[in-house]
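Hey,

Quick one before I head out. I ran the complex with adenosine-5'-triphosphate overnight. Inputs first:
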Amino acid sequence: MPLIRLEQAGVTVPDTGRVILAPTSLTLTEHRVAVIGGNGSGKSTFARLLNGLVLPTTGRVLVDDLDVARHGAAVRRKVAFSFTDPSAQLVMPTCVEDVELSLRRTVRDRATRRAQAVDVLERFGLAGREDQSVHTLSGGQRQLLALAGVLATDPEVLVADEPTTLLDLRNTRSVGELLLGLPQQLVLVTHDLDLAVRCDRGIVVADGAVAFDGPAAAAVDSYVASVAR
Ligand SMILES: Nc1ncnc2c1ncn2[C@@H]1O[C@H](COP(=O)(O)OP(=O)(O)OP(=O)(O)O)[C@@H](O)[C@H]1O
């Protein structure tokens, strides 16, 4: 598991100077880290810092001592990111082609790539859907396919930004179980407090700053209490 470290990493909007995330220092050593907080609090910005999708305007983010601002590609091979809306990630016409696209750099041989993609689909509950159009998948199946594509290359960390927000109860449960059961480190941005509480650590973001950082159950309590005030 790589070591993700924020050293006074913060984000301000260059033109206006508005603070989106105040300078933050922390190290992510736990297997599953939940990031919770209200709408617009800065959770996605925090999550995107972790693999260089957003660069800090102050301080540094390091992954195994690689500065994400200078080694973005190497960092993204270790730290994968999944978006709330799987449409942001699904670009090929069929399920198997979409997973093959993820594997194109790591598996050069076409037949091997196809076989691996078929295996990955099976692991993510999409067996038999190899040639189905991604446009005809249900919302839950689309989210599973997006996660399959992201995890196909076996990254060391998955940062998942609200992966269950668009899903119904059944799919929320199946995607949630899949994510919590991953061997990889998981950084889970979520409004689903039942999922958050099952993580090893909880970070509450409020008004562009870390408001609480500790055991997940205590983080959830702190967030719920802050809403009740
Ligand atoms: N590039 C940017 N320029 C200006 N404002 C931005 C930029 N990126 C984010 N923001 C603002 O910063 C705040 C935090 O955004 P962010 O997406 O991190 O919140 P969030 O906690 O993930 O919210 P949600 O739960 O609604 O997804 C929001 O008010 C957003 O509009």
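The CA atoms of residues 3 and 65 lie 8 Å apart.

Talk tomorrow,
K.
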